[in-house]
Fold this protein.
Amino acid sequence: MTHAELTRIGPAESVVRCVEGPALPPPGTGEIVVRIEAAGINPADILMIEGNYAVVPQTPCRLGIEGAGTVGAVGAGVDGLAVGDKVLSLARNNWCSEQLLKPQEVVKLPAGIDMLQAGMLKANPASALLMLTEYVPLQPGDWVLQDAGNSAVGLNLVSIARARGLRTVSIVRRDSAVEPVRAAGGDVVLVDGPDLAVRIREATGGADIGLAIDAVAGPIVETLGDALAEGGTVVNYGLLSGKPCQLRADQVVFKDIRLVGFWLAKVMPKLGYDRIAAMYRDLAGYVMDGVIDIPVEATYPLAEVGRALAHAKREARGGKVVLTP
């Protein structure tokens, strides 16, 4: 069995190695073996590896927030899963060839699902869906505002929003990022720059926007606050700018703009397995229907995990980087 191992905190491309370990034992009672087929590389993985995440891991340790694969063996007392079933792993050490898991550490997926998409399903689509549904009650026809529109979460968000009858304004940093967001289902895509809040109001016909989703932090949060209706909410889930979230006192006091944080790792344990499984079944349905179809720029075998991480750190990529153990 092979797996990726973090040897020390440092540059991701230099401190993660591929380790050959002993074969997994046969599954015991209440256990299954999952052969991982696809595992997306996320910014959170890289932040953790480089010591910039909420949790700094003890090294050496295994890695991999996301992963999906096929059930290879089933132990006694396991119901509802069989050899050959496609599953999403809920574990957080998925950069490996095989996993020994319990049934409540996986969610069964449709047999015909695209496994590359399944290997990117756990983090970004779930984040997009939960941020759309957990903070502001939205009705079909409502507008949602987001920055980092061409990020993986951003592309998932516009696709899911359109499927749910919502309209989106997505902010990107460069002209070349506009068309991919439109192709994913974005209604309005604007390049960041002067008079952004005015351009948002013009593009939406002055609509009352109650929800803004922010991955950047820094000054753009203030711009989002200007574009929101009174009582609007900014949900921050990232720190791409490396700067604090900024809201003016008049926005907080007079407009009652609220700022809340979202971290999937903290939200998920509160949901409980039944709700988590139902959410991922819904998201898998979006994949099967073509609603979710995240571009993949490159795949790498586990033996080339260092090259994969270097690729995942490049700016202006055209898609995700996925490990295919």
Observations:
- The chain has twelve helices and 16 strands.
- The CA atoms of residues 7 and 15 lie 6 Å apart.
